[in-house]
């Protein structure tokens, strides 16, 4: 008993180890080993599976800086990530507030079901559904021409807005869920006290609700920005030629060109850039917690 009281941290770690071990074994097998293999590939001149001669080289990383197209595509992907994150926050936070503070009972359950509904369908199904909506002669075009007295031509397929729409539809539930958890934790008496003291709705939102909900907002933004920067499926299908981004180039290196070393190098450059952005924003994230 005296030893346990003398070293409670060590005792707690021993008790938690059987619970933590499966998760850490899975992380090692499913994440760290593949990443280690990709690091190894990124420094190779050719794949050993191709049967050709190979050696260790830095040419794959040098290609990123010597070829301007990769830098431009990375900038376009970062801009895409910021725009999609912005629209997801603009759409998702009001929905989360309505779920947490306005709706009650069955109406909340029904709306919550609609929010998480995209998670129940395959990503390709969602994307091709938008293709049927946004193309010329599609669902949106037919509906508008049926109700309007004049004929219009809605054809957003293979455009930048189509990519934005598809990505926002895929990732906006993350903002809704994370913001909902933060808003649900805010005591309603704080909002009522601010209103009773004469604060306007806008002032209550700006001085009370947003600061307290900031952890959920930041978490949702990170969950969206990181995968969107490297996304390739939505830009490929909905964007066509205009949907060429950094993620689609990486996919081409692995699938079409079979240049795994260059694809691995481009992937780790993207990972380094994203980690640098998160490290720069970490003071804001720490203050939000």
What does this structure look like?
- This protein has 289 residues and is mainly α.
- The chain has one domain: MetI-like fold.
- The protein has helices at 2-6, 8-42, 59-66, 68-102, 105-116, 123-134, 139-147, 160-184, 188-196, 201-229, 233-239, 246-255, 260-288.
- The longest helix has 35 residues, at 8-42.
- The two termini are 36 Å apart.
Q: In angstroms, what separates the terminal alpha carbons?
A: 36 Å
How many independent structural domains?
A: 1
CATH superfamily: MetI-like
Low-confidence stretches: 1-6
CATH architecture: Orthogonal Bundle
Oligomerization state: single chain
What is the element string, with H for helices and E for strands?
HHHHHHHHHHHHH
Reported for the largest beta sheet, the result is: none
Counting DSSP H or I runs of 4 or more residues, the number of helices is 13
The level 1 CATH classification is: Mainly Alpha
Number of DSSP strand runs: 0
Beta-strand residue fraction: under 5%
| CATH-defined topology | MetI-like fold
Helix content: over 70%
Rounded mean pLDDT score? 85
Shape: globular
**C-alpha-based Rg, rounded:** 24 Å
Task: Give me the secondary-structure category.
Answer: mainly alpha
């Amino acid at each position: 008993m005296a030893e346990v009281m003398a070293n409670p941290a060590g005792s707690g770690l021993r008790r938690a180890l059987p619970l933590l071990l499966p998760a850490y074994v899975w992380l090692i097998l499913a994440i760290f080993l593949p990443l280690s293999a990709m690091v190894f590939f990124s420094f190779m001149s050719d794949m050993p599976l191709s049967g050709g001669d190979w050696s260790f080289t830095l040419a794959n990383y040098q290609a990123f800086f010597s070829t301007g197209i990769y830098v431009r595509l990375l900038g376009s992907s970062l801009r895409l990530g910021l725009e999609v994150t912005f629209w997801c926050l603009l759409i998702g936070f009001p929905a989360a507030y309505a779920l947490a503070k306005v709706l009650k009972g069955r109406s909340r359950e029904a709306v919550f079901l609609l929010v998480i509904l995209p998670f129940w369908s395959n990503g390709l199904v969602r994307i091709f559904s938008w293709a049927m909506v946004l193309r010329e002669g599609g669902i949106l075009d037919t509906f508008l021409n049926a109700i309007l007295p004049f004929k219009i031509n809605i054809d957003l397929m293979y455009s930048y807005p189509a990519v934005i729409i598809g990505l926002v539809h895929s990732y906006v539930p993350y903002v809704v869920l994370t913001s909902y958890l933060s808003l649900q934790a805010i005591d309603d008496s704080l909002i009522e006290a601010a209103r009773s003291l004469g604060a306007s709705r806008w002032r209550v939102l700006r001085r009370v609700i947003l600061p307290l909900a900031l952890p959920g907002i930041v978490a949702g933004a990170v969950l969206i920005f990181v995968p969107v920067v490297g996304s390739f499926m939505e830009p490929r299908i909905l964007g066509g030629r205009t949907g060429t981004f950094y993620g689609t180039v990486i996919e081409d290196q692995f699938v079409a060109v079979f240049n795994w070393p260059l694809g691995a190098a481009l992937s780790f450059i993207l990972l380094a850039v994203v980690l640098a952005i998160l490290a720069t924003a970490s003071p804001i994230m720490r203050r939000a917690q």
